[in-house]
Amino acid sequence: MSEENKIEKIAIIGGTGKEGKGLAYRWVKAGYQVVIGSRNAEKAQIAVDELAEMLTDEERSHLSGQENGAAVRMAQLAVLTVPYQFHKDILTALKDDLAGKYLIDVTVPLVPPKVSTVQVPPEGSAALQAQLLLGEETAVISAFQNISFALLLTDNKIECDVLVCGKDKQAREVGQMMVRAAGLTAWDAGPLENSIVAEGFTSVLIRINKQAGTKSAGIQITGVPRD
Ligand SMILES: NC(=O)c1ccc[n+]([C@@H]2O[C@H](COP(=O)([O-])OP(=O)(O)OC[C@H]3O[C@@H](n4cnc5c(N)ncnc54)[C@H](OP(=O)(O)O)[C@@H]3O)[C@@H](O)[C@H]2O)c1
After folding, report:
1. Mean per-residue pLDDT for 161-168?
2. To test ligand 1's pocket by mutation, which of 39, 81, 85 has the most ligand atoms within 8 angstroms of CB?
3. I want to staple 108 with a disulfide (CB 3.0 to 4.6 A). Which of 71, 157, 162, 202 is the partner?
4. pLDDT at position 226, please?
5. Is position 219 within any domain?
């Protein structure tokens, strides 16, 4: 990575969806420039217009929409927010555009209909699958799998920590910085092999939500000093 840890513009692949819009909202509020990506540039612009209703004029000027590839090319950091079933195909399509960038993968490898049962991808985790597919040129970071979009789209404090895994220490530092920018507590959770813990935990949280009649169960690390 040439410009160490310097992130100004973020591209959100599939940012027209629920989780992508939630993260875009948080990062625009934190002062970052965010490009909502979509397979369709017009759809990206519609998502921008929807989000703009929640933002001030100054914040709106930091938000734009583009086709996914163009969005990634404009940014130092990309974020993948598409359902697991499209994970491989979209990463393959964007591989060249993602070279030299950081990629935060928020994918939970859910395989419907058994979404409250952990199903481990053959590579060990979705984030590891992304790193193997993209190769050394892209630094994959895994984060946000346990954070519901509904919580991100508010200004409320979120009572859920974020486990950050990554290709190397620098990638994990960038990931933790982006988690804090979104208003959450981040923990360095180690290499991408460990990402299955956060990815798998979402199925457990889905199960707990069903039992409790809630929508946003979360996790917190205890027994260590918190920020
Ligand atoms: N929802 C949550 O609360 C939550 C929480 C934590 C993690 N996650 C993870 O975040 C990811 C996105 O979840 P979501 O709920 O935001 O999903 P979503 O709203 O159902 O879809 C997100 C976007 O995926 C794109 N997409 C759909 N079909 C596609 C295809 N064939 N190829 C490429 N892109 C396609 C669409 O963008 P375009 O049509 O504009 O291209 C869509 O807006 C998932 O991996 C999920 O596990 C979600």
Report:
1. 98
2. 81
3. 202
4. 85
5. no
Residues 117-159 have pLDDT tens digits of 999 999 999 999 999 999 999 999 999 999 999 999 999 999 9
18 CA distance to ligand 1 centroid (A)?
7
The boundaries of the domain holding residue 150 are 9-212
Is the shortest distance between the CB of 179 and ligand 1 below 6 Å?
no
Number of domains present in the structure of the chain: 1
Please say if the pLDDT value at position 210 is more than 90.
yes
Whether 2 is in a domain gets the answer no
User: Looking at the domain assignment, is residue 151 inside a domain?
Assistant: yes
- Structural contact between residues 78 and 171, judged by C-beta atoms closer than 8 angstroms: no
Residue 220 belongs to some domain of the structure: no
For residue 78, give the CATH number of its domain.
Answer: 3.40.50.720
User: What is the number of alpha carbons within 13 Å of residue 164 lying toward its C-beta?
Assistant: 22
Average pLDDT, whole number, for the chain? 96
Model confidence, pTM:
0.97
Q: How far is the CA of 114 from the centre of ligand 1 (A)?
A: 18
Question: Is residue 36 lining ligand 1, measured as CB closer than 6 Å?
Answer: no
